[in-house]
Amino acid sequence: MTYLRVNDIAKILGCPNGVTKYFRESKNNVEYSLNGSIYGDTDAQATGTKAHELVQYVLESNEREEKYEKISNALDPIEIGMELPEIIEEIIGNELLLGRVHDKALVKFRNEASDLLRCSNQLLDYLEKIPGTKGKWRINIEDSIHEKVDLIPGSYHKTIFENIIFIHGNIDLIFKYEDMLVVAEMKTGSHQGWKEDTWDLQTQIYIDACEHKYPNKKVRGFAIHKSLDGGFKHINRNPKWADYFVDKKDTIPGEHCFSCNIKAKCPNALIYPPHPR
Ligand code: SF4
Ligand SMILES: [Mn+2]
Question: pTM, whole model, 2 decimals?
Fold first, then answer.
């Protein structure tokens, strides 16, 4: 079975030529996990991943408000020269600080995690304004949009270059209340216009996947990032997001080309200016 990962599609803004390099095969329907170690990541990715874990830990908890207070209070005073507070180390481990410039990583993590926690909580506050829902949203983390076994018609799939391609991915946060289902994609790092476009696409794919998986739910989607007004933004659904995958030679060049595996061979790659990290 051939599948594409949502992250891979989004990071190159769904460039058709670029996407051809990201097809994966699930052998005997066992997917090779790419998760696990964060050591291959850049510092920015590693701090982002750990900020995700911390916020997910708080939001999925049954004692959400209490944990929010505790974790915010533990993050706030972290300064250069400090150790990671024990309460946080218990949740995210200490590998973030191994083999890295300790102080730099610590402060970067503090900033990313506080921003992400605050913005995610702002989205929850916003959702709780829907009458009758206060304190009643259940929040799941890392829900898969794919099934254990890729099968038609149950598993989420699209026709891409005339083939059936399954779409795999995990959603950072899913808020559930009765027939409402809200997907949220958390983002860390700096804001750039082109990056925001990739967040939109990623969230649109998750919305579409959930509409497929939960046909009786009303699905909405949000991106969460410190740069967004109020900490988050609503993303419109776009069930036709894959319709333009017709010609493998079509390209969508832009600053996302930096993330593309075939940029060195692509005649249309945007190679200047350099990628801002
Ligand atoms: S380098 Fe850019 S234009 Fe070329 S295939 Fe990759 S994403 Fe598309
Ligand atoms: Mn995320």
Answer: 0.93
**CB of 269 shorter than 6 A to ligand 1:** yes
Supply 99's token pair: 């083999």
- Residue 258 is encoded by which pair of tokens? 């930096």
138 forms beta bridges with: 176
In CATH terms, 1-28+137-277 corresponds, of 3.40.1390, 3.10.450, 3.90.320, 3.30.60, to 3.90.320
Amino acid at 219: V
Please, which residues have CB less than 5 A from ligand 2, an ion? 172, 186
Rg (CA), the chain: 19
| Cβ-contact 84, 97 below 8 angstroms | yes
Residues in the chain: 277
DSSP H or E run through 184:
strand 180-186
List the chain residues with pLDDT less than 50: 33-39
Residue boundaries of the structural domains of the chain: 1-28+137-277, 37-133
According to DSSP H, which parts of the chain are helical?
6-11, 16-19, 43-60, 64-75, 86-92, 102-128, 193-213
> What 8-state DSSP symbol labels residue 36?
S
Ligand 1 pocket, residue 202 CB under 6 Å? no
